[in-house]
Write a structure and sequence with these properties.
This protein is of the alpha/beta class and 243 residues long. The chain has a single domain, classed as Metallo-dependent phosphatases (Purple Acid Phosphatase, chain A, domain 2), CATH 3.60.21.10. Strands 6-4-3-2-1-14-15 form a 7-stranded mixed sheet, with helices on one face. Strands 7-8-10-11-13-12 form a 6-stranded mixed sheet. The chain has a two-stranded antiparallel sheet with strand order 5-9. Helix 1 links the parallel strand 1 and strand 2. The longest helix is centred in the N-terminal third of the chain and has 13 residues. The chain starts with a strand and ends with a strand.
Length: 243
């Protein structure tokens, strides 16, 4: 297992134009990094679908993202509407805690394995807010259902175990829940978080798991570099302004 570098964004809320996409592409290339997003990238909200393309997704394609978590803005209670929001994505959209009931969720996957520029296999899974509580009356109107974060992480780790060199969680459930996940699943190498719009100045390490958050609206990205092959959770964190 070699060292890994990750460029992280979160809660862009459509604040990604061509110059920012170019800056992110350069950060990805110059650092030989994976480019990952923690959700809420698009313009549309969770209760409606925007007609036509989401320009944020097009800009993310141009930047060369490897994967993103499904945030609440990317969610819709019917699969056809939800998939429309990110239909142009050339990268996986991840949500381990959402299961279909009547049809496939297509390009929205629970987890994936991507290859780092250094050739390592990186297992990545996503977590999204529980938009419809399990077993609630609202669930009967949806063709999807949410499961608990704990069950989702357990199943993701079981699906990825033995197949990858690194385990990365793309979390759109907030900093408090990120601590909950780290406490129970110390085998995760790093949790990249969003949703709570938490702009922390330094890396958090909880139960041996690195937790990183970056502020919203595309003001900056975080560059994470693993600093020790012997201790995977040891990362160096650098903030890169996007303009």
């Amino acid at each position: 297992m070699s060292r890994i570098t990750i460029v992280q964004t979160s809660d862009l809320h459509n604040h990604i134009d061509l110059p920012k996409a170019g800056r992110l592409r350069n950060l990805r290339v110059e650092n030989e990094a994976l480019l990952l997003d923690c959700g809420d990238a698009i313009w549309a909200g969770n209760i409606f679908v925007k007609p036509g393309p989401e320009h944020a997704i097009r800009r993310m394609n141009e930047a060369g993202y490897h994967a993103m978590a499904m945030g609440n803005r990317e969610y819709f209670f019917r699969a056809v509407g939800m998939l429309m929001k990110t239909s142009e994505a050339k990268f996986p959209v991840l949500c381990a805690n959402l299961l279909p009931t009547t049809r496939s969720l297509g390009h929205v996957q629970r987890w994936t394995i991507v290859e780092s520029p250094q050739g390592d296999r990186v297992g990545v899974f996503g977590l999204s807010p529980l938009m419809i509580p399990p077993k609630s009356w609202l669930e009967s109107f949806s063709d999807m259902r949410f499961i608990s974060y704990e069950r989702a992480v357990r199943e993701a780790l079981a699906g990825l175990r033995g197949k990858c060199d690194w385990l990365v969680c793309l979390s759109h459930v907030g900093l408090e829940q990120d601590h909950f996940i780290a406490e129970r699943f110390g085998q995760i190498d790093v949790i990249l978080g969003g949703h709570s719009h938490t702009d922390i100045d330094e890396l958090i390490v909880h139960n041996g798991v690195a937790i990183s958050h970056v502020g919203p609206y595309g003001k900056a990205a975080v560059v994470l570099r693993s600093s020790s092959e012997e201790s995977p959770s040891t990362f160096e964190r650098e903030l890169a302004t996007l303009g």
